[in-house]
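S2.1 Query sequence (Methyltransferase family protein)
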Amino acid sequence: MSEKLKKLAYNFLVLPVGNMLVLLQPEKARQLSENRITLVHKPKRDMSLSDRVMRSSLLHKLDKIQDYSAIAEQNRNFWVNSKATELFSDLEDTFKTDFIPHCTFIFDLLKKELSETSVEFNTLVEIGTGNGDVLNYLSAEFPNISRFVGIDLSPDQIELNKDRFSNNEKLEFVAADAFDWVKENGHGNTVFVTSRGVLEYFLQPRLQELFNMINGLGKTIFIAIEPNGADHDFDAHPETQLYGHEPSFSHNYPLLFKNAGFDIWHFSQKVWYKASDMQTFVGAKN
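Output structure tokens follow.
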């Protein structure tokens, strides 16, 4: 079906039916829309057809938020509480369906980068480790790195990760704000990683400050796998833009890394789930 036909079907079939279901099932609508982030991200496989149609209607009606500070605070409040663990559990399959087939190529490129440097990188830090699957995978892919630290805002999720990966002695899981952790514990000879939606929750000034701080630690490499709006042209609009229904922030990652003094050794983008979303891959080093 062409994009034009899909849009017509959405406007003239899905939305009217969704609006009717919202009126007929107000309690179900309330449950679905209890939190913007879960409303946006809950996997379709966990929803009935009627729930999915209702969700389309609810997403269409979401109020626009323009206050960047309010957005950042709202998103942080979600990721720090117990609701985050439910979403991480819901998204567990995406490690196999998205990360493995679509994202691992950049770590093959990282292996090449590491093989061509005399610097011994002994630590890998994943900012926003979520359910720990990516960090566990990387610990097997990079046997010469001895320490793997997963940082996440959610104390509940960190405790679950400690339990789940207790047999992997290379892994450490820490409940902390990444900015504070790097300021207190960061050091050189470290690879930093984010995977599929972490830096998008940082306000631009704080993200720039984080990159500046990491550059000041000594020799570091940063792999950022982050979403961007497909309509965000970095050349025409270098500043951060709002992205998605949550909303979060579509940052110009290459520019922010360069501003902090990093060199970009890899940049690419892929369509992510739908035409309005891009997955951006950046490899930076100092």
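Residues 90-285 form a domain with the Rossmann fold fold (CATH 3.40.50.150). The mean pLDDT is 90.
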